[in-house]
Design brief:
Layout (H helix, E strand, L loop, with lengths): L5 H5 L5 H33 L4 H56 L4 H13 L1 H29 L1 H10 L2 H36 L1 H6 L3 H53 L5 H42 L28 E8 L9 E8 L4 E5 L6 H9 L6 E6 L2 E2 L5 H5 L2 E4 L8 E2 H5 L8 H10 L3 H6 L7 E2 L8 H14 L4 E5 L7 H12 L6 E5 L11 E6 L2 E4 L7 H7 L3
Parallel strand pairs: 3-10, 3-11, 6-9, 9-10
Antiparallel strand pairs: 1-2, 1-4, 4-5, 7-8, 11-12
Length: about 575
């Protein structure tokens, strides 16, 4: 863990003004420290010499003003730095959410979703200490010792020499302790991420665990992970406390050396009283910022470790170029229309890391506008990978995908997906009204259009039977609905979206035969300019389909099927 991560500072550009102002206040505070020491030394020396109250009144008022200004500068600097931290956290959270969405489900499937949630919440909240205390203190750790050393050197070069020799001891000890703290904090964060991910999995799978009588076993696992996290946290705190002890001891010994040599010289008349007071007042101020930056470094380590993981995710490249290469043309956002342009998969191969064989092996396929294509095959045949290719969730390991005369990777990702409607095997419904869930891909849709889409998907009957109808609020993941009801709402969402390419992954997996027959008829009734690619395990959708593509082991088994449309496949679905 570096003292200052330049990647984090790059993301802090939005808060650059706040940070500059906070640093300016810190430098002003350093000047006020010198003024406070000088005024206090003068006041004490004057009092010892027997100066009257009138002579001291101006000095004491000035000292009071300097103390108040120093407190105001410290308070203002922390407030401004906290504002900077809030700005950076907001920017990082937006960037993290955007990058996770661009990386897509294929990447997210290999991650711990609980860790991502912990990063975006508690993890980034730890940056408050980093920006509000650590970074400003880091600047003060450079400015204040130099300023104090210069002022002490002007008053007494011998004391300045002692301070200059002993000052490096504190950062040296801080670095030695920091090496150990780095590993301890990283372990603490890994355990927290593991705990968050495991706890989320347990909560989501609690009904299954209860049915199989495994809830108690998971309680034991959570207790073990929690105990490990508690142990790591206490170990990190022990290191932080020991670090503070070492730094305090080093500063105390160094200050004592200065005090001894100043006392001896004062005793023998080699230094005047006011100069001795000034040196003794300024010496602790030279070491204080270095001690404080060490303590704040440990306090900010958790936030910095979380930010390091966030920046690692932000540096992960999404599938396919989404930005212009230096000196080259940028991605195209227009000029491709799936209502008229065909999609060509040219000897496409997709191999996942660690896989024994490619998920798709030299697949060549042409998808023409308005076609109804049914993709069949056993589990693991590559059907979902083919849809992931079209959605650009994964990139071909070899081969190309062309849309019209344009390579798919040259198209801007957002513009490409705007032409696609997709229903996955396990669609996600969000907390909100039914109408808002259906209109997710078409936010400005009218209530009439929403009702028409629900009717096509066979969802209107049960939605309209609810007291609040389309205004019924669904809970998180709509767990109060059956799998079939969730599937129908997801299909209504896809039907409403006026996208020329409709991708359906097992659309009838959770439906009864009557509902499946109704969905088949609805697909057949779609306008002729909408292309449909439907993935299924069973043969019920293939009988009489426009074209049947059979995949086995990632290879094309049956490139062409019978003539006709999915309209005739509706009759083949068992009732």
């Amino acid at each position: 863990m570096r003292a200052v991560d330049p990647r984090l500072l790059r993301h802090a550009r939005a808060a650059q003004g706040f940070l500059v102002f906070a640093i300016g206040l810190g430098i002003a505070g350093a000047a006020l420290i010198l003024a406070q020491a000088a005024l206090l030394a003068h006041a004490l020396a004057a009092a010892v010499r027997g100066g009257g109250t009138d002579a001291l009144q101006g000095t004491l008022l000035a000292l009071l003003a300097v103390v108040a200004a120093r407190a105001a500068a410290a308070w203002g600097g922390e407030v401004v730095a906290l504002r900077a931290a809030a700005t950076v956290k907001s920017q990082l959270r937006r960037a993290l959410a955007d990058r996770v969405m661009r990386l897509g489900p294929a990447w997210l499937a290999g991650q711990q979703t609980g860790e991502i949630a912990a990063l975006a919440t508690r993890g980034l909240d730890g940056l408050d200490v980093y920006f509000a205390r650590y970074l400003p203190q880091l600047v003060l750790a450079v400015v204040v010792p130099v300023a104090v050393l210069a002022r002490v050197a002007a008053a007494d070069w011998i004391s300045a020499l002692v301070i200059a020799i002993t000052l490096p001891l504190i950062p040296a000890f801080a670095v030695l302790v920091g090496w150990h703290t780095k590993a301890s904090t990283r372990r603490q964060w890994r355990l927290l991420a593991r705990l968050a991910g495991h706890f989320l999995d347990v909560v989501e799978g609690l009904p299954t665990l209860k049915v199989f009588g495994r809830a108690k076993a998971q309680e034991k696992v959570i207790r073990q992970v929690t105990d490990a996290y508690r142990g790591a946290t206490m170990a990190t705190l022990r290191v932080a406390f020991l670090s503070a002890l070492v730094l305090e001891l080093a500063a105390a010994v160094a200050t004592a050396l200065v005090a001894v040599e100043v006392g001896l010289r004062l005793l023998y008349g080699h230094m005047d009283y006011e100069t001795a007071l000034l040196v003794l007042l300024l010496t602790p101020e030279a070491y204080l910022p270095l001690r404080a930056v060490g303590a704040q470094f440990h306090a900010s380590m958790e936030g910095a470790a979380a930010a390091d993981r966030v920046l690692e995710i932000l540096d992960t490249q999404p599938p396919g170029p989404s930005e212009a290469a230096p000196g080259g043309p940028g991605p195209r956002g227009t000029g491709v229309d799936l209502r008229s342009d065909e999609i060509r998969l040219n000897t496409v191969t997709v191999a996942y890391p660690g896989g024994r064989q490619p998920a798709l092996d030299q697949l060549s396929l042409v998808i023409r506008p308005g076609e109804r294509i049914v993709v069949t095959g056993p589990s693991g045949a590559g059907k979902s990978t083919m849809l992931a290719l079209l959605l650009r969730f994964v990139q071909p390991t070899a081969g190309t995908i062309a849309v019209g005369d344009t390579d798919l990777t040259e198209l801007e990702l957002r513009a490409w997906r705007a032409q696609i409607a997709w229903v996955p095997q396990r669609p996600h419904l969000f907390a909100g009204s039914v109408a808002r869930n259906i209109a997710l891909g078409q936010p400005g849709a009218s209530r009439t259009a929403i009702q028409r889409a629900a009717d096509l998907a066979g969802a209107a009957e049960f939605i309209e039977a609810w007291p609040a109808g389309y205004d019924t609020v669904l809970g998180e993941q709509a767990l109060q609905l059956s799998s079939g009801q969730r599937q129908k709402i997801a299909l209504a969402r896809a039907f409403l979206r006026d996208a020329p390419l409709l991708l359906l992954d097992e659309p009838a997996a959770h439906l009864d035969p009557v509902s499946a027959h109704q969905i088949a008829g609805s697909i057949a009734a779609l306008p002729g300019d909408r292309t449909v690619v439907l993935v299924t395990h069973g043969p019920s959708w293939t009988d009489g389909a426009g074209r049947v593509v059979c995949l086995h082991g990632g290879k094309l088994q049956t490139p062409a099927g019978s003539a006709g449309a999915v309209a005739r496949s509706a009759a083949a679905v068992p009732r």
